Amino acid sequence: MDAVWRRVAWTAGAAAGCAASFAGFWAAQRGAHVSMIDLMVYRAEGATVRGGGDLYAMRATYARLPTTYPPFAALLFVPLTWLRAGTMRTAATAGNLLLLVALVTLSLRVAGRPRRVPRAAAALAVAAVAVWCEPVWTTLRYGQVNLLLAVLVLWDLTRPAAHRWAGAGTGLAAGIKLTPALFAVLLAVAGLLALRRAARPEVRAWGAAYRRRALVAAGTFAGTVAVAALALPYDSRRFWTGVVLAPDRVGLGEDTANQSLRGVVARLQHTGDPGTLWLTAAVLAGAAGLAVAVTALLAGDRLPYGAGWATVSCALTALLVSPVSWSHHWVWAVPMLVLLGSEALRRRDPRWAVGTAAGCALFCSFALWDVPHGPGRHELRQSAPQMLLSAGYPLAAVAFLALAGTVAVRALYTTPTRSVSTADGVRLLPGPGDGAAVGPTVGPAVGPAVELTTGPALGPGAGLTGDPGRGPAHGPGPGPADAPGPGLAAPGTGSARPAGANPRHPAGSS
Questions:
Q1: With a threshold of 0.90, does the pTM exceed it?
Q2: Of residues 416 and 25, which shows the higher confidence score?
Q3: Cα separation of 271 and 206, whole Å?
């Protein structure tokens, strides 16, 4: 009974702390009179669809902002037109705060945490802090959909592989914004490589699950394209034959808010068009990042939290190679930091703890805004220290991918040994008769411990559901929204900003 009351007390205390943090956040945003301008663009897209207008000729808000989302997203935005603007903003803020709690919960799940306190308590405590980090702050400030997409993908990848719709969430997210499609590519590549003759039997079994998920994701994405083509044939033709190929429609490439490789190279070259150098860097980074993610999946039960390493590596790769990755797209910093923190606890190595703390400091510091930015294209005249400061997120992603590649390769060539779980979470590797269950499977352990199997959560076992034996398977800080700051979105992945049209920065945001 004492243990039950302790769990209740932990959860109640965390809930009170989270509520206080969220209330303070909400008050700060209201005090800053944020306009949630991207949410207003979404609403205008929905109104354009209802009125039968030209979606990609539309300009919304006083900043004259265009749209670059796929037309399917505009169909989903129609319900926003049923609400008054004030009600819509309130609902969007509340919904994003709930999505943040969901993202943290899924991040803990994929990292096999916590082990000694209730997961709800841990999720609420982490969310209370995460809401103040720069990517999350700006997502809520602009009324963006980044948290929704991250939750869709992470929820989908942690579902039991035997579920007939496993993969649908990833395809749906890609139908709204294109960059999540890289997760389907990851699954497809891992599934094909698992066919090789040298693969272990359990890896070949996981490979079948990967291929099936990839097919479901691709089919769902194709379904979103077909639905939009039927409902909006003219807009669909315009998007897929022109808008998707126009990265400059989104905003200025050198904008300090653009935390992709294209933004870094543009600032290094002091030009808005980085050209072939960026393309070369993006291709190399994409291939390397995808290789890291695939290796983490194929390492299987040899790599603790392998699904977490693979998922975060794939997300960061997508952010690096996208032509525009505005700072608020980097909400994937939350699962990245949760994973690093989990590894620091498991390894009990101070170097991991220092790295995790450094990552938290980076994403909570708003440091990328401590450089000249705003009207006047100041980024074209940055000094070397300023360029370094405005490249913080891509540098963190490269460091993470290097670390992930190291641990994944080491795990891949490690001979697995059967071990018994302990209170510290040592994994129980599948052995004869264990089947191919993978992912953290919570069940009775030897002694008082919790059993944890940490193979790829995307494999054909219990996924990361915690069900044992499930069967095979912009300006920094709270400034007003019309203050100088970043723009948002990538081609085909957000509402764009023409030069000089962003109320926060000439490049705009979506």
A1: no
A2: 25
A3: 46
Q: What is the CA radius of gyration of the chain?
A: 22
Mean pLDDT is lowest, of 76-85, 251-260, 411-420, for: 411-420
Query: Does residue 282 register a pLDDT over 70?
Result: yes
Bridge partners, 444 (sequence order): 450
Q: What is the pLDDT of residue 164?
A: 86
Q: State how far the Cα of 229 lies from the Cα of 187, in Å rounded to an integer.
A: 27
Overall average pLDDT of the 443-458 stretch: 36
Q: Could you give the CA distance from residue 409 to residue 110 in angstroms, rounded to a whole number? A: 20
Tell me what the mean pLDDT of segment 180-204 comes to. Answer: 85
Residue 354's identity, in one-letter code, is V
Both tokens assigned to 358: 């450094």
Q: Find out whether 496 and 508 touch, Cβ atoms under 8 Å.
A: yes
- Out of 26-30, 161-165, 392-396, which region has the weakest mean confidence (pLDDT)? 161-165
The SS3 assignment for 60 reads strand
Which amino acid is present at 310?
A
> For residues 93 and 31, what is the distance between their CA atoms, to the nearest angstrom?
14
- Cis ω before 114 (30° cut-off from 0): yes
Between CA 239 and CA 457 the distance in angstroms is 35
Secondary structure of residue 453 in the 3-state scheme: coil
Confidence bin at 488 (pLDDT 50/70/90): very low
DSSP state of 470: -
| Residues 313 and 404 sit within 8 Å (Cβ to Cβ) | yes
Give the contacts of 110 (CB within 8 A, at least 6 positions apart): 154, 157, 158, 305, 307, 308, 311, 335, 339, 457, 464
CA distance 257 to 263: 8
Looking at the DSSP bridge assignments, the partners of residue 450 are 444
Q: Average pLDDT in the 335-356 region? A: 94
Q: What are the angstrom distances between the C-alpha of 219 and each of 167, 216, 233, 423?
A: 9, 5, 19, 42
Give the position of tokens 């769990």. 7
> CB neighbours of 144 closer than 8 A, spacing ≥ 6?
38, 39, 138, 328, 488, 510
CA distances from residue 209 to 29, 96, 112, 183, 213 in whole angstroms, order as listed: 44, 31, 21, 14, 6
CA distance 236 to 453: 45
Tokens representing 382 are: 């940055």
Helix, strand, or coil here: 283? helix
Listed ranges 19-33, 363-377, 464-478; the one with the highest mean pLDDT: 19-33
Q: Which of 62, 45, 80, 65 is nearest to 235 (CA)?
A: 45
